[in-house]
Amino acid sequence: MRKSVMILILIGITAMGLWAKGNVETASPMGDEKISLEYAYMVESGDTVELYKSMLQEYQKETPNIEVKFIPIVDDYAKKLLLMVASKTAPDIAWIGEDMIRQYASQNALVALDPYDGEFFNSSDYVQGNLEGYTYDDTLYALPFDSATGLLFINNDIFDKAGVEIPSDHITLSQLKEIAKATTIKENNVTVQYGFVTGTYMGYLHPFFRMANGTFIDANGNTTFNTEPVKEIFQYFYNLIHEDNSMPEYGSQAVPFVEIFKSGKAAMMFNGSWAVGEVMSQEDFNCTIIKLPQYKTIATPAWTGGTAVLSSTKNREAAIKFLSWFSGEEGQKIKFSGKFAASPTIKTLLDTELAYNGYKNPKAPMNDFTNLVDSLNYAYALPSLIFGNNQIMDTIEKEAEKYFLQTISLDELVTQLDKKVTKLLNE
Amino acid sequence: MIFVSAKIKHRLSYLLIYILLLAGTILIILPLLWQVTISLKSSNTIFELQPSFIPKEFKISNYSEAFKGMQFLRFFKNTVYISILTLIGTLFSCSLVAFGFSRTKFKGQNFLFFILLSTLMLPSQVTLIPMYITYAKLGLINSYFPLIAPHFFGDAFYIFMLKQFFSSIPKELDESATIDGCNTFRIYWNIILPLSVPALLTVILFKFNWVWNDFVNPLIYVNDQNKYTLSLGLYIFKASEKFGPKWNYLMAAATIMMIPVFTLYAIFQKRFIEGIATTGLKG
Amino acid sequence: MVFIAGDSKLKNQQRIGYLFISPWILGMLLFTIYPTVFSLYISFTEWPILIEPKFIFFKNYLEIFQDEFFFNSLWVTTKFAIYTTFPTLMISLFIAILLNTKIQFRGVLRTIYYLPAVLPTIAVALVWAFIFNKDYGLINGFLRTFGITGPGWLADPKVALLSISIMSIWTLCSTNIILYLAGLQGVPKVYYEVSTLDGANVVQQFFSITIPLISPIIFYTLVMSLITTFQVFTSAMMLTHGGPIDSTRFYVLYLYDTAFSYYKMGYASALAWILFIIILTLNYTIFKTSKIWVFYEGDA
Q: N- to C-terminal Cα distance for chain B?
């Protein structure tokens, strides 16, 4: 009896000890003048953490009175940031994706940056298409500090073997189809080599709709799925998959298509430029990158990473100051001198080697980045009305999946899309 | 005659057992072997139409990359620290509570036990925010407190498990001990615990495995990279959706990570039998 | 006098009981009550997380019963629970009994059978993604040598759920085997010896001795399997993310998306409470019926 009480007390003391330990560790002494900021970001690859540390060191040399603490987050970024905001322990500054802007901005969780334009940063320094992704209701909420664009990757060896000339500029959509057909190899009913691979995610397919002058929503905010250009592109991919068998079946993405391309089992791949490093890092892999195909118009998507200041911060000015440096020219110069697999968002830096420095590999055969830099300049941001709303995105994906897996017809698809997306837009 | 045929029958049945177990072993081993194979391949030879278990070239360097990338030594220390404290807390609290539920009688016992179980039934996704808010208010985010402290207050999974094991120990033992003048705590400490060594080892094993591989809680409550656990280190190779995982490094890291738990089990599995043999009361 | 003494002894007994379970009671007051009540409250609100919740009474609950995804995910989860729980139970009990016989290399075999449980979930999921891949996967590669074209194990909506079940059985079996093995150690060997002398064969022994004596453990695994399979999340999140065509959109996966991807925490909380009630009812039924088939030596 007494012993059990003792043990309970012991447990209690241990627990209290742990509690106290936690308290000591989190309570950091605040100096009188020193401003302490917290910066949460998503770790996209292992090298990022070290790189950001070195950027911070450089910053602290210039501005010793602002101290920045990093919170690297390796997975489930959106959830963790939400938890921090909900518990009122939000960081002052946070990495933010274009798809998060609408939610955060519409609920006043972010500081509008426009009033500080010209003072701490110049929005005119940035590539226009990159800023668009962080604009909500004509207000800028974050500064883009790395960008990627869409490219068509070509496996030179497969092209040579098939006797197809390696293009250097835009090809057309019908050329893409022809080449894909010519480079697809089937053995015993199994496709051993695909002509074309890409992500079965709307973010990947969107530029193709845009190429055909197709949109999902018109200027009045009405959905426009049931229109010729949209249907045409759906049909185009359907045929690639089911008629020509030159593209893998739509469905699970558990094994990424990059792996298929990298291991030499696909002639062409459409992917973001982030894959350049991944693909080029292989020494015995002959690859060319060209711009996206052209149809009625040219369309190249931009995917950017950005940084925003959360409205709960107590040091708004200092946070914006840091943000402007970190996302600005000076920060990006350090960032892209290191091995960061993306491109800068500052116009002037696109003319320098820094535009593709993160992808370079002296041992790899590929070293022509002209197409990449060109694409960066005119890339567009994915429309936030659709891409900033995960529920709409998921709905579109699911319906598209049904169509590509042959359970509904094209007409059913576009009618369903119009119906369901309209309903969600009105919510 | 009858004697011989019984012997043959006996042999045959053992042969059958071996065959069945071997078939099972193959099913168990293949995916694991595949993991090790990937961990030794270079990134562009992972995908092949005719998958081969023997890589063309053995890239041992994947392991050193994984070791470095997940900052093994530092994160290992953190993980061990958390694991040990968690195990101490779990063993004490769960065995006490389980004993209370199976060996003592009090009002509302069944009801309270059902409440205990039902705490497992609400998806953690919705209690996450209030939990986080609580810890944030107490200033305990970015400490190991939220990872360790709850284990000192019992875990329904293991309480239930131990209760089931305790229930299979004959009640006569308690009764005779009471007559001999043992109080309830002595029964717990001197009779039930020694008799439950296999069950307690099972708790240690399962809990250690769980803490070792737990990724959700460290991800949520730990901010500072110096405080990361191994499982968080592993996720560095998973990277973001657009990059896709670094398959070979990830598998190498996962292989390194499973060694401690595996070793613990290899040691324990003998004790499962010895634990019983030494008490000698039941067999 | 005697009566009063007995009463105080009973009270003392009770106090000891409460003392033993006090760590859990304390833990519940500290860690469980608040989040539970909070989530119940949130389920009656509209809460996009970034701003304050707004009370809307039963609107979430009413909406759920018109939500096709709710019914779909509940159905998918139920199927998964059935596909997974019972095969796991039977396979692992069978293997545990085999591993408990006096065979050689018993230690090695036992160690091997526990391996799947040791692996980090992410590694398990990625390895199986490989195994299940339509073109480059192990299974289809193996089938191809016999000239059979295998299905897209994760890409075909008709097969995907089954594939995830197979993977889950693979991992769940190993923990259950350990549990059964530990349970089997507690079965006195005398019982078998006596029944052999009585002329009982192996099958009869299995049903009359083994099953009743480890029924508390079987009961435990059944309850736990139901709780975990109804809350399955990680494997589907990594392998299929609910697809193809929602065939693996498990309940908690839908709940998670609703909460953290669609920013509808109120609705997600209502979903959680409905799941809670479902699991609770199921387990309550099992508990009620357990009196018939679970045999506690302590009670005998």
A: 32
Please give the mean pLDDT across all residues of chain A. Answer: 86
Alpha helices in B149-188 (DSSP H): 156-167, 172-179, 184-186
Asked if the Cβ–Cβ distance from A405 to C245 is below 8 Å, we say yes
Helix axes B61-69, B72-103, angle to 10 degrees: 70
Say if C33 falls within a structural domain: no
CB B58 within 8 A of CB B40: yes
Which tops the pLDDT comparison, A58 or A2?
Answer: A58
Question: Rounded to an integer, what distance in angstroms lies between the CA atom of residue C114 and that of residue A31?
Answer: 53
Task: State the Cα–Cα distance between residues C253 and A34, nearest whole angstrom.
Answer: 44
Angle between helices B156-167 and B109-118 (to 10 degrees): 140
**Residue C5: CB atoms within 10 Å:** 9
Which C residues, 193 through 232, put their C-beta within 8 Å of a C-beta on chain A? Answer: none
DSSP state string for C258-296:
IIIIS--HHHHHHHHHHHHHHHHHHHHHHHHHHHHH---
B191-209: pLDDT as tens digits: 899 888 888 988 998 899 9
Instruction: Quickly list DSSP for A98-126.
Output: HHHHHHHHHTT-B---GGGBTTTB-GGGB
Q: How far is CA C229 from the centre of its chain?
A: 4
For residue C42, list chain B residues with Cβ-Cβ distance below 8 A: 126
Q: Which domains occur in chain A, in start order?
A: 33-148+303-359 (3.40.190.10), 151-301+386-425 (3.40.190.10)
User: Does residue B92 belong to the interface with chain A, where contact is any CB pair within 8 Å?
Assistant: yes
Whether B153 sits inside 8 A of C28 (CB atoms) is yes
Q: Measuring CA to CA, how many Å separate A211 from each of A151, A219, A257?
A: 14, 18, 22
Counting residues of chain C whose pLDDT is more than 70, the rounded percentage is 96
- Nearest CA-CA partner of A79 in B79, B220, C14: B220
Q: Provide the terminal-to-terminal Cα distance of chain A, rounded to the nearest Å.
A: 61
Bridge-based pairing of strands A190-198 and A266-272 is parallel
Q: What is the Cα–Cα distance from C99 to B17, expressed in whole angstroms? A: 9
Q: Is A221 exposed, middle or buried (0-12, 13-18, 19+ CB in 10 A)?
A: exposed
In chain C, the number of structural domains is 1
Average pLDDT over residues B2-23: 80
Measure the N-to-C terminal CA separation of chain C; round to a whole number of Å.
31
- C201 vs B: CB within 8 A: no
Q: Mind listing the pLDDT tens digit for each residue in A198-235?
A: 887 788 889 999 999 998 988 888 999 999 999 999 99
Residue B282 phi, psi dihedral angles, 5° rounding: -105, -30
For residue C130, what are the domain limits?
Answer: 68-299
Between chains, do C116 and B47 touch, taking CB under 8 Å as contact? Answer: no
**Across C55-77, average pLDDT:** 94
**Residue the block writes with tokens 């091995």:** A339
Chain C residues inside the 8 Å CB shell of A5: 19
Asked, for residue C281, whether it belongs to a domain, the answer is: yes
Closest chain C CA to residue B27: C170
Asked if B211 has any chain C CB less than 8 Å from its own CB, the reply is: no
Q: Do A254 and C240 touch (CB under 8 A)?
A: yes
Strand duo A143-155 + A301-309: pairing: antiparallel
C224 domain-assigned:
yes
Residue C2 lies in a domain: no
Residue A119, φ and ψ in degrees, nearest 5: -90, -55
Look at residue A40 and give its three-state secondary structure: strand
Of A207, A179, A204, the C-alpha closest to A194 is: A179
CATH classification of the domain holding C194: 1.10.3720.10
pLDDT of res. B166:
87
Question: What is the predicted pLDDT for the residue at B143?
Answer: 92
ipTM of the complex: 0.86
